[in-house]
Amino acid sequence: MDDKQTIRVLHLEDTRMDQILIRSYLQNSVLHNYIVTTMDNLKDACADTADYEVMLVDLSLVDSDGMETIQRLRARFKHRPMVVLTAADSEAIGVEAINTGAQDYLIKSAVSPDLLSRVLVSAIGRKRSEDELVISQERLGYAMQGSGDGVIDWNLITNATYHSRPWQILLGYAEGEMGNAYEDWLNSVNEQDRPLVAERLQGHLEGRLPSYEVDFRMKHKNGSVVWMSVRGRVVEYTEDNKPARLVGVHSEITERKEHEQIYKTLYEVTTDPNFTTDEKIQKIIEQACLFMNTPIAVVGKVTGTIYEVVYALTEDGVKIGDRRNLEDTYNYNTLKDNDIKMYHNVAETEIADKPCYKKFPFNTYLASPLIVNEKRYGTLGFFDVKARNRPFNAEEKNFVRMVTQWIGHHLSHQEFLAAQKSLEQSQKLESIGQLAAGVAHEINTPIQFVGDNIQFLRDGITDVQKLLSVYDDLMGSSNQDFVSNSFSNAVVETKKKIDLEYLLEEMPKAAEQALEGVSRVSEIVKAMKQFSHPGSGEKEFVDLNQCIENTIVVSRNEWKYVADLETHLDPALPKVKCFPGEFNQTILNMIVNAAHAVSDVNKATGRERGTITITTHALDAEYIEVLVVDTGAGISADNLTKVFDPFFTTKEVGKGTGQGLAIAYSVIVDKHAGRLSVESVVGQGTTFHIVLPINSADPIEK
Questions:
Q1: Which of 419, 504, 530, 583 is the most buried if burial means most Cβ atoms within 10 Å?
Q2: Cβ contacts of residue 241 below 8 Å, gap of 6+?
Q3: In whole angstroms, what is the distance from residue 462 CA to residue 468 CA?
């Protein structure tokens, strides 16, 4: 069942690429069916009589520029919502655009499909609310001009004012408690809003504004804040054409302003990189509860026939981690029909006979299917034990659709990050597994000569012990003449037999070689430990030269048979704030790729060895650069643009998955705000440039 809301969009844009991009963004929407009509000039747009739900407008067109574009469109289409989409990244222009008549303002470089869809839907809802309010106020004003009910009537000559009784009730005053002077009314206006009120009023009285229209805060008698919207105009003039009487219709818009604040908070939460996905979703449902005026909101995940609460703003009774059979929950019908379900009084419906109502007697219930990565994930539901005094309206339904889409987007991103992290870990484990045999070989060589030298030392000590035994035997004899005559012969014979001179010369060397072997093993183990250490999960300042040297050690078996590896590491290189484990993995990928490239050339040309060169240096006070250069075959121009694409590889089967450079790009660019580029000359070799900020900020969650 396709329940997508159809939204017709008039897109005013004179740049062909931007036309195509925006059309693709909208037509790929999961929750809305966008029908996009594109025009590149204002003349055709104003002449078009088709009906559109919203206009998406670039300020600079072939026949119009700047605020003139908004003014002409607003004059032609008074009630049509308008969103400005332009390249200018200026808060001042954005404010001016909204003040001129646009509902919202987007910057081209920052727009995304999700953001664009949200803003368009929000603009439609906001404009509809504004237009409905204006129409209602006009009708009310015309109907009540005679009685003065719901209006403020101000005599500009005498300064006397009349406040209708309903208006006084809104502010909590009994009849007669408010003074009749304009100043009495002005004193009830929030002090911060008085300059704006005075400016709009003066603009109308002087004829610069066609009507007196302003939203502002007023003080309730009990001290609380009440938002008011005034729509008024001068209805009488003096003989010399000066304003004599102004009548204005007052409407309370506290709820609308609260909703606008909720929208603003939601936007700030969803775009703030400092919040985790879990924190964003929790804050989204908190704001959604305020909008829906329900105390409970639940995000549930469905796996097979099991429904599990994964996020919740809840009172006693529903808890995160609760698991139930789907058929025993309120959400069963929502998912079965794949549509929003709304009940303002559950007790009067068939659900009252279900087990879910008997266990959790919620009388207010609204839920929407939740889609993640184009698959059914679960539901977003709102609950209250109390019944509502009215059904849910279209604005509330559209709001729930929008919030569901936001949560679905963030859950999709969360699943993507989890998959990416798993892929990175798998790639790292794969690399370590490939290195294990080489590292074992690197350790085995020094261990072997350590063993040989220790064997030699053991045999030498045995021989020396024989000589010492001769000394002991002779020194223990009571026949001193025999000792004197035999001593020299026995000692000389034993020295010759054990080759004492050789032992005294070689044993220290053997001990030194054994110590060198132990040191080499220790160096390899230390390098492997530092290379493989998972770190704290946070960025830390590290010595990149040491990281590179450790990686060279653990990867030695990959390159030592095919290339000479040279390093030019700047000893003055400052420590860099990074994820050391992920940087190590990036350098390892570069070295292994370089070794494979060099090896291929060696085999093809009969060359004995190639060269791999790693260089580090500071570019300036903020950035450092690492260069990895090889004398391999180089990369063709066609392949050069694809080397960082996932799963792209030119290696033979079994020598690579095509993930190494894609992950390296993500590590350097996304997680470290750095740059990773490549240049290559076919037949000469390849150079990878890694540029890192010395003190990079934490990665932004995109």
A1: 583
A2: none
A3: 10
Q: Is 129 exposed, middle or buried (CB count within 10 Å of its CB: 0-12, 13-18, 19+)?
A: middle
In this prediction the pTM is 0.43
The conformation of residue 64, written as its DSSP 8-state character, comes to B
* CATH node for 5-112: 3.40.50.2300
Beta bridge partners of 105: 84
What are the respective helix, strand and coil percentages of the chain, to the nearest 5?
Answer: 50, 25, 30
Contacts of 60 (CB under 8 A, 6+ apart): 14, 66, 69, 86
- Name the DSSP letter for residue 346: G
Residue 225, number of CB atoms within 10 A of its CB? 11
Hey, which bits of 159-294 come out as E strands?
Answer: 161-163, 212-219, 225-237, 243-252
Name the amino acid, one letter, at 636: S
Identify whether the C-beta of residue 613 lies closer than 8 Å to the C-beta of residue 595. Answer: no
Helix residue spans in 539-615 (DSSP H): 544-554, 556-559, 580-605
Q: Report how far residue 23's alpha carbon sits from residue 28's, in angstroms, rounded to the nearest whole number.
A: 9
Kindly give the parts of the chain with pLDDT less than 50. Answer: 1, 145-149, 478, 653-654, 699-702
From CA 90, how far away is CA 656, in angstroms rounded?
47
Q: At what angle do helices 277-292 and 394-475 cross, to 10 degrees?
A: 160
Residue pair 346/362 in contact by the 8 Å Cβ criterion: yes
Sign of CA dihedral 41, 42, 43, 49: positive
H-run or E-run covering 267: helix 254-271
Number of H-type helices and E-type strands within the chain: 20, 23
The size of the chain, in residues, is 702
Task: Say how far apart CA 11 and CA 28 lie, in whole Å.
Answer: 16
Q: What CATH number has the domain spanning 294-392? A: 3.30.450.40
CATH superfamily of domain region 145-252: PAS domain (3.30.450.20)
Token pair listed for 593 = 């790729």
From the list 182, 183, 155, 187, the residue with the least C-alpha distance to 171 is 187
Phi first, then psi: give them for residue 36, nearest 5 degrees. -105, 125
Contacts for 137-141: CB closer than 8 Å, 24+ residues apart: 137/229, 137/231, 137/249, 137/251, 138/231, 138/249, 140/249, 141/231, 141/247, 141/249
Dig out the tokens for 546 from the structure: 């040491």
Count other C-beta atoms under 10 Å from residue 502's C-beta. Answer: 11
Structure tokens at 479: 């026949």
Beta-carbon contacts of 650 under 8 Å, excluding residues fewer than 6 positions away, are 635, 639
Whether 461 and 511 have beta carbons less than 8 Å apart is answered as no
CA dihedral sign of residues 348, 354, 356, 357:
positive
Q: Are 144 and 123 in contact (CB under 8 A)?
A: no
d(CA 53, CA 33): 12
pLDDT value at position 478?
47
CATH topology of domain 533-693: Heat Shock Protein 90 (3.30.565)
> Of 661, 669, 671, which is closest to residue 698 (Cα–Cα)?
671
Sign of CA dihedral 257, 263, 265, 268: negative
Neighbours of 456 (CB within 10 A): 18
Q: Which of 228, 235, 232, 233 shows the shortest CA–CA distance to 253?
A: 228
Q: What pLDDT does 234 receive?
A: 92
Secondary structure in 3-state letters for 386-400: CCCCCCCCHHHHHHH
